[in-house]
Amino acid sequence: MNAMTAKAAGLGLIHKILMFFIIINIIGDIGNVALWWAIGAFNERIAGIIILLIVAAVYVIALFGLLRKLKWAPLLVIAISVANRALAFVIYLVSPAFAFWAVWTVIIVVLAYLDWRKMKSLP
Question: Which of 116, 122, 107 has its CA nearest to residue 20?
Answer without folding.
Answer: 107
